[in-house]
Design a protein that fits this description.
8 helices; about 230 residues; alpha/beta; nine-stranded mixed sheet
Length: about 230
Amino acid sequence: MLKLSGEALMGKSSFGIDPEVVDMIASEIRGVVGLGVQLGVVIGGGNIFRGIEAGARGMDRTSADYMGMLATVINSLALQSALEHRGVVTRVQTAIEMKAVAEPFIQRRAVRHLEKGRVVIFGAGTGNPYFTTDTAATLRAVEIKADILIKATKVDGIYDRDPVRDANAVKYEKISYTEVLTKNLKVMDSTAISLCRDNALPLVVFNIQAAGNIKRVVCGEAVGTVVGG
């Protein structure tokens, strides 16, 4: 299962979707699919709308989170278009039913698509407010019995502090779920990390901006930070 942040689709822009970035990610995914790997994808919506931020500014949190879920569907459709342009058969499934644009999420159908070599993009989060797309990615990964959850970020792994703000930040090559929680490293929310831990789902955090990294992670190369144990 590949987790992409919505911000990853912005490129150098401050908002929206950069077609060149989406094309790059689609090309990377195509390379992984070419290896015969079954791949699911969850994309955030922060490049369009972040429910938690809108809620903090006074908007009703439930309404804001539903708007964020719709933003993830927009991103999912953009990635689907880019993938199918490259000949990768793709299905979008959403936690909120919207038959005109996507299938509803059905676990058995999702697994069947994967078995047929299709990339399945899971949109609309969990379908519930107050849950992040990190949690949605972990939940879907467990439901489809994924071997690993890989989270694409703008940095090359997990650090003990923000490497952008502190040049002395130290990178972890491997770290346990419990350490991530107790040290409050915020690479994913606590619900997602706990769900990974409770289901023994390995997590790798890596840099999406380095070409070929998705394939390297899938092939087991030492890329990013491994969370487990």
